[in-house]
Amino acid sequence: MTSARATARAFPLYIAGERVETDDRAYGMSVRSVLEPGGHEAAALLRLLREGTEEEVHAHPHVLCSVSLSTPEQGEAALAAAAAAAPRLRATPLAERLGCVRDLHAAFLAHREQIAHLLRLEGCPRVLVEAQLLAVLDLMRPESLEMAADLLHQEFTAPRHRIVLQRQPDGVVCVDPPANAPLYGLIAMLVLVAGNAVVIRVPRSCATSLSYALHEVIIPVFEAHGTPPGAINVLCADFEVTMRQWLDSPSVDTVYYFGSSDYGLALERRCVERGKKAILELSGNDGVLVWRDAHLEHATAALLESFYASGQACVAPKYAIVHPDVADELSARLAAAASALRPGDPETSDTVLSPVLRATAFQRTLDEALRAGAVRVCGGARVGLDGEPDPNGLFIEPTVLRVDGFERAEANPAVRGEKFFPLLSVVVPEDGPDLLDRCLDFLDRNRFGLRNSLWAEDAVVVERFTTELRNGGLLKVNDSHLANAPYLPGLGGTGDSGGTHGEAMYPILRASRLQAVAIATTRVHPRDALLGPGA
After folding, report:
1. Residue 463 burial by CB count (10 A; 0-12/13-18/19+): exposed, middle or buried?
2. Which of 169, 402, 429, 464 is the most buried (most CB within 10 A)?
């Protein structure tokens, strides 16, 4: 694939094992439609989308694909198909389901370059494209599948029983993937391994990459394995209409939602009221603790991940607590490294920056932070694609603030609030014998809880961080904050990041329920079994 036009194609719906075309369509657009708008050209493109034929629209270099839009009736058909397939999937031996995922791993490798190309055309920087692909591939490696098999089915031998602990699937799982990181929606599709049937809604913002992965990788592999029709169903529809349908349908057992904390926590309550399970991947405000003996070059590089995709990734670091002994040096390193980051076309450059969707919220947060006592270390201006100041620019310079003292940081919106723009706050606490206690307490009181990281060499500090910190679904030590690690889920969180039942989250576990089985291996009268021999 050498151009956007080479990738343009029409994607159907997929319901009950059938590919379904509709007249109403959504269009996947290249990020270049934003980077290179030009008033006349942008107006012409909008007119073409409204009035042009399918052939004319697909011929436009900024149009990557079209996707059939589903009606509410087709949404009901998808749910009915999933409900019919769920019992057959549950009866499929686990070994067969795992074998299907092994083939998925090979298929993703075969299509890796095409998927990466489409993600970049949609605006995802190259470094985050590779991070998403690695996360998907890691969960499909043989060792990960062996762990999945162990988690789904375990057996133990007792004196007079064979004990089985097995996970039973929820049934029908409806997935609403993240609009800014579509491959994490494919990780959610691993609920199929537990024996669930899936209905997934393709968001318009990432229609191309997600549709391609579903129709060119996932669906063909499952079809080749003879998976029951209805095991996977793909829709593209209005979010609110679809969510109401999922909540109201008696066919739906679980709603798997990626998005804002405010909506997700309300969704959890609505699910509980209807007897459904909610699996939530919500907002984040990840913290990083940099101790006095940290490897500052590596710590700086990890903190720079705050600006990948211009901070529009929920699992990126958002604030750092830095030991006062190294705060000045780390701030200087961060300022130099952040100021060197430049905008660019994600398809033709190695930029880590993306156009910022919430520029107004960024400016409001920055102004409030400065009024609350934060000091600007670097950045803060809107810039154009060329990196030059532009009050209407689509990019924002990576911005670093310094906030001295936990008391001031506690009240600063740039520290405690969820941020979806390129803003990193460096909190420098006062020194003292109880400094580590205060640092861990500050991390623990974060209302969000996706990931937390530590940079330290002191074994005592590492031990206390990893054993005492309760906040967060994932803890990282002396490592990239964003990078995936073998065997670890990479998803899930506590507090407002994961809801009431938030935790480090393996999709196959969260979309299944533990069932215990006891099979007597010796013949004992039930009364003796209940009360003990000789009762």
Report:
1. exposed
2. 169
Kindly give the residue spans of alpha helices, DSSP state H, lying in 111-154.
112-121, 126-138, 142-152
**Residues 160-191, buried b or exposed e (16+ Cβ, 10 A)?**
eeeeeeebebbbbbbbbbbbbbbbbbbbbbbb
Rg (CA), the chain: 25
Residue among 75, 165, 62, 47 at smallest CA distance from 123 = 62
CA distances from 418 to 310, 379, 475 (A): 14, 19, 19
Structural contact between residues 493 and 472, judged by C-beta atoms closer than 8 angstroms: yes
Pairwise CA distance, residues 439 & 436, whole Å = 5
Q: Which two tokens stand for residue 71?
A: 């009606």
Neighbouring residues of 480: CB distance < 8 A, sequence distance ≥ 6? 301, 302, 305
β-strand partners of 430: none
SS3 395: strand
AA identity, residue 144: S
Residue 53 has pLDDT above 80, yes or no: no
The whole-angstrom distance between residue 498's C-alpha and the CA centroid of its chain comes to: 12
Structure letter (DSSP) for residue 518: E
3-state secondary structure labels for all residues of 54-79: HHHHHCCCCEEEEEECCCHHHHHHHH
Confidence tier at 413 by pLDDT (50, 70, 90): very high
d(CA 211, CA 225): 20
Instruction: Report residue 265's pLDDT band, with 50, 70 and 90 as the boundaries.
Output: very high
Q: What is the pLDDT of residue 55?
A: 77
257: left (phi over 0), alpha (psi -120 to 50) or beta: beta
Tens of pLDDT along 278-303?
999 999 999 999 999 999 999 999 99
Cα separations in angstroms, 378 against 305, 308, 383, 513: 16, 16, 14, 49
